[in-house]
Amino acid sequence: MPNCNSSTLPIVLFDMDGTLLDLSFDDFIWNQCLPIRHAQINQCSLQQSRDTLFQFYQQHNHTLCWYSSDYWTAKVGVDVLKLQQEFQHKIQPRPGCFELLKSLNNEGYRCWLVTNADQPSLKLKLENIALRPYFEVLVSSQQLGFAKEDIGFWQTLQDLHPFDPTKVILVDDTAQVLEGAKQFGIEKLITITQPSSLKPARDLATLNYPAIHSLVELFSYLPQSQVKDVDVKTA
Length: 235
Ligand SMILES: [Mg+2]
Known about the structure:
CATH architecture of the largest domain: 3-Layer(aba) Sandwich
Number of domains: 2
Shape: globular
Structural class: alpha/beta
Bound molecules: magnesium ion
Order of helices and strands: EHHHHHEHEHHEHEEH
CATH superfamily of the largest domain: HAD superfamily/HAD-like
Distance between the termini: 16 Å
CATH topology of the largest domain: Rossmann fold
Strand order of the largest sheet: 3-2-1-4-5-6
Strand content: 5-15%
Number of helices: 10
CATH class of the largest domain: Alpha Beta
Radius of gyration: 19 Å
Number of strands: 6
């Protein structure tokens, strides 16, 4: 039975890569595949390729260019979208992803997907992992013209889809994104301990926000729902 008080529940905003989906796919594409392809095309050593790409990454991290497949394709001469398509079988959800989304939908929470993935990458991810049915709104920062790290992203999102920043909760694995959202006025911010299963969990002491591993741990940060109350009483 859906919660009758769904209008009073917070809207839950989710990042995609590193939050709902395992960042291991993106790590694999950008840190393993791309340097190899870039070295082949430019006939340089793998180390030279890594050095060049790492320098590019440093220059563009946290900007809209960073998240644009077209930009990288033009910049490094490798079709990055094609590369992602070639390895799309490696796209995987993070632990607890569907369990959480199903429960939130059943309990009447409104869920929005807010991603820095560009539109072609978002489309590819959604073709592989069936996230779309759980979301009322799906937005790529490319559509809004600002990366999520920029307060302009949140202002533009609010113009398009009005929301009260004090009545939403944002789950995102990137500290700079959480900082931007905080500046905008979003108060409930949650991060992820282990965005990529290829890398170790991050030290909690280095994270400035409450952190979860399995996405179902988010329940402890949400208002207790009527559905859950009923389950407890009849258990
Ligand atoms: Mg992310």
